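sry for the spam today, last one i promise. C-alpha cells for design, 140 residues
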C-alpha cells in the first residue's frame, strides 16, 4: 500500500485521523464527508495513495465503483444522487488523494449544484477528436 505521510486521506486510512466509516474493503475505504452537501455525502477512496485517477493502479480501482453503488443504494431512494471525482485544482480537487463523492440529491437546495456550460456541437471536429482519442486509448 502506498501512503504519503502528510496526506490527509492517508492519515485517515492509517487511523491517525478518525473518520465516520461507512464501509471498507481490502483496498478501499468509504467515510462521511465532514463538509457534506447533503446528509449521507460519502467519500470513497483507495487505500493506495495517488493524487490523480490516472496514477492509480487498476487493481486499486476494482472496489471503488461497486462500493459507491452500494452506498448510493443505502442512502436511498437511489434515484437522485451524484458520483463526482475531480482531478487537479482547475477541476476543483481539494485533497491530493483520489476520491469519489457519493452525494444524495434529496431536493433542489441540498446536494450538488452544477452549472454545465455546454459547448456547441461541431460533428466534423467531433469525428476528428474521437478518432484521435481512440488512437491514443488503444496505445495506453
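last one done:
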Amino acid at each position: 500500500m502506498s501512503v504519503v505521510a502528510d496526506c490527509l486521506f492517508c492519515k485517515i486510512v492509517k487511523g491517525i485521523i478518525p473518520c465516520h466509516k461507512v464501509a471498507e474493503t481490502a483496498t478501499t475505504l468509504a467515510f462521511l464527508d465532514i463538509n457534506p452537501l447533503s446528509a449521507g455525502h460519502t467519500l470513497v477512496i483507495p487505500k493506495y495513495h495517488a493524487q490523480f485517477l490516472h496514477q492509480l493502479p487498476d487493481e486499486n480501482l476494482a472496489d471503488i465503483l461497486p462500493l459507491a453503488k452500494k452506498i448510493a443504494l443505502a442512502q436511498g431512494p437511489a434515484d437522485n444522487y451524484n458520483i463526482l471525482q475531480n482531478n487537479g485544482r482547475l477541476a476543483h480537487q481539494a485533497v491530493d488523494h483520489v476520491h469519489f463523492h457519493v452525494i444524495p440529491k434529496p431536493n433542489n437546495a441540498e446536494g450538488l449544484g452544477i452549472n454545465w456550460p455546454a459547448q456547441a456541437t461541431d460533428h466534423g471536429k467531433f469525428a476528428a477528436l474521437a478518432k484521435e482519442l481512440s488512437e491514443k486509448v488503444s496505445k495506453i
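The longest helix spans residues 123-139. ok im logging off now
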